[in-house]
Amino acid sequence: MAATALDERRRDVLRALIQLHIETGEPVGSESLSRALRRSLSPATLRNLMADLEALGYLDHPHTSAGRVPTDEGYRLYVDSMGRQPLDPGEREAIDAALRTREASAEQTMERASQLLSRLSRHVGFVFAPDIARTSFRHVDLVPLAFPRILVVMVSATGLVTHKVIEFDEKLRAEELSACANYLNAHFSGMTLADIRARLLELMSEEKALYDSLLQKVVALGGLAFQDEGEANVYLEGTSNIVGRPGFEDLERLRGLVATFEEKGRLVRILNACLSGDGIRVLIGHENPDPDLRDLSLVTARAPIEGDEGLGLGVLGSTRMEYAHVVALVDHVARAVSDVLRRQRE
């Protein structure tokens, strides 16, 4: 039977059972479910309905317990049918107050957002920005170090700052480096690194570059400054919230989960895969792209920035999370972060 074929009574029973399981963490029996439904259905009737839902794949019967627990398919139906709930006003105010600090940098905003997501969800909160190759370039500074080294300070459209050191064969004065940086900022701001590299190749072939000393230096320095794609920035808070939960006593499962958190490249691939499209996305259990996350749920969203793909953020936690609250939380933090980063750019 397809999920859409469930009648209203079975939907109500499934919803009530999942809410009770989320609250208690225990398999739900017919007697406790009858009490939760204010005795509108008898335990005997509920046992039959629960057996139907189990046969349809929405509930499971763990071990010898008389109670049932939701399957990933049960949670999926629950999430797809739940209405949007507003975030508690007190939580909204706490988020806004924590993020909208005038002196905060983009990095500090990301870190605070991950902490808020973790603390208010009681799961793992994360925020990540794609590597600068996938975002727009805003500004660059070129700072002379001991010859032949030059410090490149690059700011993405998101406001994230990256540093790297390049080596340049010609000794340049600080004012020459400043002139080159001014040219790059004037002509390339708002472009992606791929577009900048393509434009630099075009400049190299133009006749003007043969005779213009500044342009020669710009092309050479720009080629070095923009050649590396860098790494994504990931802020992760609250991993102990998962490690300490029931269901993660198995050491092998725990090792796999910790390894996922520690391997930055792997984590970035997972988060990128979960952030396709706009709006809130919820991945439950086996829907996750990584086998080590098959017992967890991910709630993700983008914090868009005008002219840029922005940041990704969300909550990773037990499939027994309070989905309505977590969805509202992730949605509000994404909007707040977007607004803060927009203000920082102005």
CATH architecture of the largest domain: 2-Layer Sandwich
Strand proportion, as a percent range, falls in: 15-25%
From the alpha-carbon coordinates, what is the Rg to the nearest angstrom?
A: 26 Å
**Main β-sheet: number of strands, strand sense, barrel status?**
5 strands, antiparallel
Low-confidence stretches: none
- Percentage of helical residues? 40-55%
Give the total of beta strands: 10
Description:
This protein has 346 residues and is α+β, with helices and mostly antiparallel strands. The chain has three domains: 3-81, Arc Repressor Mutant, subunit A (Orthogonal Bundle), CATH 1.10.10; 89-130 and 232-345, GAF domain (Beta-Lactamase), CATH 3.30.450.40; 135-225, Enolase-like, N-terminal domain (Enolase-like, domain 1), CATH 3.30.390.10. 49% of the residues lie in helices and 18% in strands. The protein has helices at residues 8-24, 30-36, 43-55, 72-81, 89-99, 106-121, 174-188, 193-205, 208-211, 213-225, 239-243, 251-262, 264-274, 323-345, and strands spanning 59-60, 69-70, 124-129, 137-144, 149-156, 161-167, 233-237, 281-284, 296-305, 308-318. The strands form three sheets. It has a five-stranded antiparallel beta sheet, with helices on both faces. Strands 4-5-6 form a three-stranded antiparallel beta sheet. Helix 5 (89-99) packs antiparallel against helix 6 and helix 6 (106-121) runs antiparallel to helix 14. The longest helix has 23 residues, at 323-345. The chain is elongated and about 90 Å long. The model has no long low-confidence stretch (mean pLDDT 83).
